[in-house]
Amino acid sequence: MTFSLKNKIKTVSLNRSGKVVFFLFLLSFSACGKDYVTGKTSYNWFSLDTDVKLGAQVLQAQQAGFARQNVPVDKDQEMTSRVRTIVGRITRVSHIPNLPYEAHVAEAPVVNAWAAPGGKIMVYEGLWDPQKGLVRKESDDEIAAVLSHEIAHCTARHVTKSLSQQMTFSLVGLAVSSAIAGAGSYQGANLFGEVFSQGMNIYIPSYSRKNESEADKIGLFYMARAGYDPRAAVEVWKRAYQRKGDQTSIYASHPSSGERAKALEKYLPQALEVYEQSKIMGPPVPARKGTL
Ligand SMILES: [Zn+2]
């Protein structure tokens, strides 16, 4: 896969309004593509290349925020390496295994993790805090439960689908144009005002309930196919129901009424079969469109 959108702009060297027209032209081809997960026609004005570009900008803005506040990133080599191994195993069996995935661990007491569009992933150390955290630090299965849910948001392209629904045609053109033209600046990240709230320099994606339950289901099968025990997902979301946190926490961005764990339990027998199969299967195979 090549990500050549930026190069195309350079070679045509259009003025700003020309760029918008050019983007609208490009976008018209990507408005109703086949969904990578369901295989059905889906409504998304953004190309997958644009997801990658936008996610890279979110990550860049987040890293710049950490640099200003002297928050160390990837300093804990053992945890960074564990997180990257888990991300690698999950993404290899996902519906889009060839995105430029990249995972980081920030030394911040925030109980959260996110995957930006296009595969850029941030995990905050508070996620495994013994008192207020969501997962047990020693459990790869529990960490995989959270990461597979986040990666599912990414492969289901929930952010750009949601943007596509919220924006008018011309706004999408302008937004994408400024995001791409603004490489190296914060313009791209500002685009996410609609779906990302920036409080305390922490990006907090906000998804609809429908997107949340979809990511729960897709993520459950991703972790099972990657060889992580799917029962951990039920445990994690049961725990989330019992814990509370501030607005930067995963408890606020992923409200749990107890329904989540119940919904997951419904798919658990099937996910456990997949998990058992993963132990006897050969090398990991990416998920096929339309199947979990
Ligand atoms: Zn979520």
Quick recap:
This protein is mainly alpha-helical and 292 residues long. Helices cover 53% and strands 7% of the residues. A 3-stranded mixed β-sheet has the order 1-3-2, sandwiched between helices. A two-stranded antiparallel ribbon has the order 4-5.
Question: What is this structure's SSE topology?
Answer:
Layout: H1 5-12, H2 16-27, H3 48-68, H4 77-92, E1 102-106, E2 113-115, E3 120-124, H5 140-155, H6 158-166, H7 169-181, H8 187-190, E4 196-199, E5 202-205, H9 209-225, H10 231-242, H11 250-253, H12 259-280
Parallel strand pairs: 1-3
Antiparallel strand pairs: 2-3, 4-5
Helix pairs in contact: 2-7, 4-5, 5-9, 5-10, 9-12, 10-12
The structure holds zinc ion (ZN).
Q: Which structural class best describes the helix and strand composition?
A: mainly alpha
Low-confidence stretches: 1-22, 179-200
The largest β sheet comes out as: 3 strands, mixed
Q: How many structurally independent domains? A: 1
Q: Summarize model confidence as the mean pLDDT.
A: 81
Number of distinct helices: 12
